[in-house]
User: Fold these one by one.
Assistant:
Number 1:
Amino acid sequence: MATLGNISLQVAFFLAIAGFFVAIYARKQSREDLMEAANRIVIGIGILITVGVIALLRELMISNFQIEYVAQYTSRNTPWNYKITALWAGQDGSLLFWNWILSIYAVVAVVQNRKRNLNLLPYAIATILVVQLFFLILNNFIANPFQPVPPGFTIPDGQGLNPQLQNPGMMIHPPMLYLGYIGFTIPFAFAMSAMLTGKLDNLWITSTRRWTLFAWLCLGIGITLGGKWAYVELGWGGYWAWDPVENASFMPWLTGTAFLHSVIIQEKKNMLRVWNMVLIMLTFFLSIFGTFLTRSGVISSVHSFTASAIGPFFSGFLVIIILASVTLLIWRMDVLKTRNQLESLTSRESSFLLNNLIFIAICFSVLWGTMFPLVSEAVRGAKITVGPPFFNQVNVPIGLLLLLLTGVGPLLAWRRTSFESFKRNFMIPIVLALIAAPVFWFAGVQSLYPFVSAVLIVFVGSSIIQEFWKGMTARHRMTGENHFRALVNMTLKNKSRFGGYIVHLAIVFYFIGFTGSAFNVEVEKTLQPGEEMQAGMFSFVYSNHQQLNRPNHVAQIVELEVLKEGKPYGKLYPEKRMYFRSNQPNTEVDIIQTWREDLYATLAGVSGDNNAATIRIFVNPLVQWIWIGGAILAFGTIIAMLPTKPRTIAEKSK
Amino acid sequence: MKIQPIIALLFFGTAFWIGIPVQHAHAYDTQKYEKINSSLSCQCGCGLLVSVCTMDGCMCEGVRKQVGQMLDQGKSEKEITQAMISIYGEQILAAPPKSGFNLSAYVLPFFFLIVGGVVLYSVVKRWVPAIGPSGESGADERSSEPRKGDSELKHRDQIEDELKNLDF
């Protein structure tokens, strides 16, 4: 099966080269037969890479340790579900997985556009094939997942999957991130095609709107799931550490968000055509850049794959992307430029422009902070660390500005906001925020950023609810529908708009969670059985200890009885595991989760004859709101992605 | 407008409720200890702060012990930080010190934002007079002043108008 996988990847490599030239020639000569051939080549590559993936999965499942990759990332006692996740746990497999997703996307894009988008499709295919070709070069020549172990070696058992990756979140988090990163290839390819063909109207944007939303959604969910994984698996009580690889996933999400807002202006007013090109180019570039960061070993990160020789290849590919796209942009600049017109500074359009600036500013600060250790070393020769204190200090104020704009933007009218309109729309949110401010202050929220954040949450939350309320009551009065039906119908009639508002609401939920983190309580203590420790208003009594032998590890488990103001509240069972195969210790946290706070316990270790246990307790307020926010974000984006029935001429003329 | 008191109550309640957890927020007995550990970065490759790293056998355990001992000796935060830099190098700091070239790390993002804001303002201002008050189709009625005494009707029309026109 490994041979079949190898052959399929090699054939796919040659087909990708052929497909690239066929697609270009077909467009140049306007040959529909050749265009169809290019389409079939894309489908063929999809089938071949799928064969490669199936071949590798089979080797993983049957534990063929004569394949290096299988021996490195699985062992005989690795559960079957984690044998599947081993497909993307290592460098070589994950590159194949990446290319597989791209090949599926390419097939879907071809099937979707082969009839209706003949102008843009050939060059879009050519662009996608260049990206596929790059990954096929890596898989065939640099990072081959089917590489056999050296001759004469027999490996009785593999090293097994890193225990920290043996978490259900790892089955979803990386694929979601990949779906997001790779998804931006499609709008990028159509943007390149628009520039190559000179068809620079809104077609490339409308053709790829759902692709962009889908990629953005997957990346957003992937980032949130990554936070959830870090929270439940790494045992340090947090969900975001501003690690370079986390930052690498955050940056294309930021520029993607700016792009999603900015294209609305192009669709409605035919403005910002150059800017939108820049944004999608930047988003795609950052997606590849993120992959480069994870795999090149340029920056150290807990998420990094083993350093390998692929760094220079990625650098070269990034240079090609920049050169090609910037050259095209300069070439088409005159055609792309439009006469930009706005009626007023206080308009929805202006707020979109401002939000673009803020998104780009946050992206810049994250990029700057991530790369600053390298810059500093180059300039001063001194190694430094740029960690959470820096990122929080720089990004929190800018993030709060963005939160404010999330509330202000939707309240501003398109074209111009009159004073009357301003008063009418802002009155309730501002009054509620003003009422909430002293309440927060006297409740103890007296640090600057948490206080501002809490007040803004009230302002933004109420502004979104107000928008829904106004629309719902207006529809209720006009149609006689009951309030719930009016709300549903209104949302479904204006999916993009209200889907977007739901996403804004999700952002409010995220900020509630972030604000809660300002009040985290953390206590570490070594307890004898029967002793207790205090964290916030909770007591934790070390009531029991046991050692369990499980199939692939031995676990030390302590039982903690939790009391809230003296009354029983629950039990926690944090574990310390020692995995046999890798001889690696691993901390398994236990959490009591409520919408008010998480009680989060980790066990540093159990020592001595008397089973003294070193326990760390975190009381983390409002963390659940972040995960709920993720679900709301997904819901809102799905609403916005639902197809819209085109309005009839009669409806339009009403 | 009967709904306003309900919304007010809803958000007043939410605001109050969000504030509740902070009643037990000041529990650290060793705030200074935590503050110092939170300003130091673990060097084992995990990328975490010394205060939260839980890796087994990690250098953080030693760092935390050293910080505790120095606090016991009555050393100030600044002295402890300096001692840590002399032992582990500047990279032990979780954020670059705000001096010399490192200052650019802090200043540049805000410089970018401010310059971007100024450029954006001047660009948008240049765009504004380029069009007359008559707009294109799909305009929002909010853009014109409403007639007095007819605000609710106007409001309803405006929402419906938006519902019709803003779906893209």
Number 2:
Amino acid sequence: MPTLPRLELCALHKNYGGRAVLQGVSLAVGVGECYALLGPNGAGKSTTIRCIQGLTPLTSGTILLDGLPLAQWPAGGHEFMGVVPQGDQLDPDFTVEENLWIYGRYFGLPKGQIRQRSRELLALMMLTEYAHRPLQVLSGGMRRRLAVARALIHAPRLLLLDEPTTGLDPQARHLLWTRLRTLQREGVTLLLTTHYLDEAERLADRVGILDGGILLAEDTPSMLIRTHIPGDVLELRRRDGMLPDPENWHEGRVAAAERAGDTLLLFDRDLDPARAHFAAEPQYQLLLRPATLEDVFLRLTGRELREEAS
Amino acid sequence: MNRQNSLFPGWGALALVRRNLLVWRKLLLPSLLGNFIDPLLYLLALGYGLGHYVGRMEGMPYLTFIASGIVASSAMNTATFEGLYSAYTRMAVQQTYLSLLATPLQIGDIVMGELLWCAVKGAISAVAIVLVAAFFGAVDWAWAWLALPIILLTGFVFGAMALAVTALSRSYDFFMYYFTLAITPMFLFCGVFYPLHSLPKLAQMLAGLLPLTHAVLLLRPLLTGHLPSQVPLHLAVLGAYGLFGYGIAAYLLRRRLLR
């Protein structure tokens, strides 16, 4: 018998007034898996997280936790899920440690268990020396790590993170990623939203690309790249600010191309002819690089697609 | 659908009361100081100053008369402030309610927790006044202990009405309307400073519809050594305001938070 997915979203629809925010989103996150929902602002990422929390009533669709609809779990399944919301929602009236204690009481945990778990989580999130400090002295990265610690106070099976590293500096992001990977090794299932492609690429076992409330593609980061991008990428920009390749020389000469602002992206296994052609013109700046998730993202949610859609 | 929607309170409410109590404890000294000094000023200024010219009212010294009225209005004011400004801060600024909804707590727990806390907070300030008034000999202790449940009920009622207003508010500015149109008229026309029968008949009837009137009519006798009359009527009016206030606040808060 195959193991049930930890979390399963089945055809989620959500309309606000006449506007469809989710248009049949279905996905499954396996036990111990890290799944990243990637999408531009307004794609429906946060709405999806809110729906799982029961904060946004669905227009239609079902959400299953360990195979059982959330509506049938006591307290909407909250005893088994932790949430790291956008903007932390920490309690500014309390110290670092008190934030964990107070939160543990909302889950009805006994005091001794809360104290012990708080010590472990503060150590894991490298906040032990700040335990007695007020929240106001914490940096953005520390606050976010405290929010993760708080979400883990009741040892949930599933951790939801809504844009966990938005607004953090690179060091803080790397530290948080390291801690999230530790959690994953310990068997916690992670569902996170992000609009950072590197975050999805480095953290997630699987990535779902969400745009306009529709899941456009879903796979491991490397398979997404292989499926949607043929080979490498050549980035073209012009020093004078004009759009590159106005005569569309590239058409028919490379496997695929995409315009993004002042940049022309050419995709192919062999980009040497194109590079040779444009290198001859002094106005051009060239960058040949391997394909990344960002290219997949641009191809799937990029300008051309939106024009087709409208 | 989701059980998150429950408007009925559970034990989770007490976890929120405890949270608010812990915050209050951090600011204990300035908070208590305010609770004692405020009524002291009122009692001295009105009880002695005005009382000097008024003399006795309804057979008791004026200080004694207004002391019990101010006990009631203070429970109203404190609970109202808590249900408006403090609750709005938790709801909109600190997003405390959203973080609570990520735990097993539900809308009903949040509303009940906030209202119980409004009741306790109102009682803290009202009891402070009872103590100050007692220092001036303005309290008869025969039935005074029965005042405590009435004070708690008064705080709950005004907390519920305030929380309903909070759930509708887009900013702190909105609360001025509620004070001007609801709280201040009650403060002035519900028998805090003079007996109701000094008002014209119509005004008396209107005052009879307002919750503070009934809180005063229960608390004044209890604090001056008598048992109140028409107890079931007063309790029924306060109970109705509390019950409807709770229902409306819970409904509006759910509409605001779950969307």
